[in-house]
Amino acid sequence: MAKKLLVEPAAAPESFEQAMAELAQLVTQMEAGQLPLEASVAAYARGSELVRYCAAQLEKVESQVKVLEGDMLKPFAADGAGEGLQ
């Protein structure tokens, strides 16, 4: 009979900051090298989920910033530096 893993799916993070904090904690635990093999695999899987969540959050924010910026932010020209700032 195959052994069943009793790993419950982890809840989605409440925020980007919470995900980053959990990810940092997982990295610290894994770098310490004290986790058993199954716990290391579970930590790696959770870390992958958190990285995907954070990347998605950053993409959302980047899209929002692009919409808010519109054409407002433009590179400074060497001869016109400071123009348009008031």
From TrEMBL:
It holds the Pfam family Exonuc_VII_S. It catalyses: Exonucleolytic cleavage in either 5'- to 3'- or 3'- to 5'-direction to yield nucleoside 5'-phosphates. Its EC number is 3.1.11.6. One of its GO terms (biological process) is DNA catabolic process. Gene3D superfamilies: Exonuclease VII, small subunit (1.10.287.1040). It is an enzyme of class 3 (hydrolase). The keyword Cytoplasm applies. Its main location: cytoplasm. Belongs to the XseB family. HAMAP family: Exonuc_7_S. This is Exodeoxyribonuclease 7 small subunit.
